[in-house]
Amino acid sequence: MNLSLKHSLIYCLLPLFSLALVSCHDMTKDETPIATYEVTIENVSQVYPIFKSSAFNTPVGASDPGPLMPGAAYEFEFTAPVGSHLSLATMFAQSNDWIFATDEDGIALYNQDGSQVTGDVTAQIDLYDVGTEEDQEVGVGDNQAPRQSGPDTGPDDDDPNVRLVDDMDLPPNEDMIQVTLTSTGDHGFMVRIENVSDENTLQTSEGSKPALLSPGTWLVHNSSQSGLLYTLGEPDYGDGLEAIAEDGNPSELAMSLAEDTGLTVPLSPGAFAVYVGNNPVFRAGKPAPDNGIEAIAEDGQPAMLASVLSSEERVKASGAFNQPVGSSEPGPLLPGEKYQFTFTAHRGDRLTFATMYVQSNDLFYGPEEKGISLFSQGTPVTGDVTDQLLLWDAGTEINEEPGVGPNQVLRQSDLDTGPEDPNPNVREVDDEYDYGTLSERIKVTIQLADN
Fold it and tell me: Of 410, 412, 362, which Cα lies nearest the Cα of 10?
């Protein structure tokens, strides 16, 4: 796991989830336990250094991909949470291996007050030599994209390190490229990359020529992630930036970035109950009861629900789980970590629990409403029970794009914020957003504790 990302997640989440563990209570009846179980809840999702990424390759108004001629522009749109940065790269096509790109940190998309950055950001774009091919005169070399016999031609550069271009004969960057940011609504951006050169911009031994720009790639990441496209003073990573810098082909790098692109989803501390009769946590199709399930679904805080469950007559055992295995303190469940809890149960008992999908407004993972049967024909149920889980919408707050919404626990100004959901009923989540498949996020197994 990327340590900076892990530490930043813990820093954001720990104050919200630091609470005392609610211990299992005694059986409500004087019965001999049939089995003692250990339940493991594991976060099996990935840590992604990149939130969103893609390629841009078709000029505005064009029907096919192609280079950017003078006066033409590429445009692309995305949404991003507060704290995000944008990185991008496009080939300076009258060169052997030069790119216009953001620096290693990218461009901050938000100001310190949380407002969106808009307007001309060309000053944050520089011209870099990727160090993969020997340089020739700009606009003239026969190993440059407009004139080469095929892709990836030309001898290697004697200096293989990525570096700023130092060519006093070139015009200022702003005479060749302009990059602007426009707000498309709350947390939405449009990026425009325009070729502002003309036929006289480049002065070469063969006369005046325009600057040409190529298709490229872009990515959105948080401020702690740096050097995702390159590291200044070090060789190219070999992930596809060379194909942009030499040939204006972004497909290889876009595919490489896609492997590291996605939503990192922690899970929250939660509460469980072993019960008979109706589910004591919620009823599908009805509003969330005032028992603390809202506090888990919105803020990842299980104390209230665990306390209420401990006094329910039909609940045989209950408690909170809030400390990852191997951790010395309570906290969220980051990818690769797991919670564990134990309890005793009798024939006929069922298990339910709830843990927050942290990159949401009010979603939680839990078993189907009927719960998980702990015995089958008198035999203790063990093994992987993940297929009995659902991602539930608590119906207490309007859903926002996962990982972006300002009223989600990682970004909200305070606990219990956000407008109410017009549909107040607990239900399986069903909206326009992508939450990832359940099996990619969580795994739950049951085993006998004495095994």
Answer: 410
Q: What is the DSSP string of 309-337?
A: HTT-TTEEEEEEE-S-TT-SS---B-TT-
What local confidence, expressed as pLDDT, does residue 188 receive? Answer: 98
**CB-based contact 397:362 (threshold 8 Å):** yes
- What lies within 8 Å, CB to CB, of 111 at 6+ separation is 117
Write out the two tokens for 175: 């005479």
**Hey, CA dihedral for 248, 254, 256, 261, is it positive or negative?**
positive
Contact 412, 406 (CB under 8 A): yes
Confidence of residue 32 (pLDDT cuts 50, 70, 90): low
Residue 449 DSSP class: T
Q: In whole angstroms, give the CA distance from residue 198 to residue 208.
A: 9
Element of type H or E holding 307 = helix 303-309
The neighbouring-strand residues paired with 273 are 318, 352
Both tokens of 62, joined, read 């064009």
Q: Please, is 52 exposed, middle or buried when counting C-beta atoms within 10 Å of its C-beta (0-12, 13-18, 19+)?
A: buried
Eight-class DSSP state of 242: H
Buried b / exposed e along 152-162 (16+ C-beta atoms within 10 A)? ebbeebeeeeb
> Which amino acid belongs to residue 220?
V
CA distances from 164 to 167, 222, 232, 363, 384 (A): 9, 24, 8, 46, 53
**Structural contact between residues 314 and 277, judged by C-beta atoms closer than 8 angstroms:** yes
Read off the pLDDT of residues 156-213 as tens digits, 9 standing for 90 and up. 999 999 999 988 789 999 999 999 999 999 999 999 999 999 999 999 999 999 999 9
Instruction: Give the list of residues 6+ apart from residue 46 with CB closer than 8 angstroms, or none.
Output: 262, 264, 335
pLDDT tens-digit readout, 413-431? 888 788 999 999 999 999 9
- Among 149-153, 202-206, 224-228, 280-284, the minimum mean pLDDT is found in 149-153
Integer Cα distance of 420 and 393 in angstroms: 12
What's the CA gap between 257 and 51, in Å, rounded? 10
Cα 70 to Cα 177, 181, 208, 214, 430: the distances in Å are: 9, 20, 13, 12, 46
What is the phi/psi pair of residue 338, to 5°?
-150, 150
Which two tokens mark 437?
């498949």
Query: The tokens 């939450």 sit on which residue?
Result: 435
CA distance 32 to 137: 87
**Scanning the structure block, which residue is given the tokens 């290693």?**
104
| Cβ 253 vs Cβ 239: under 8 Å | yes
Contact 288, 395 (CB under 8 A): yes
**What is the C-alpha separation between 63 and 263, in angstroms, rounded?**
31
Q: What is the pLDDT of residue 415?
A: 84
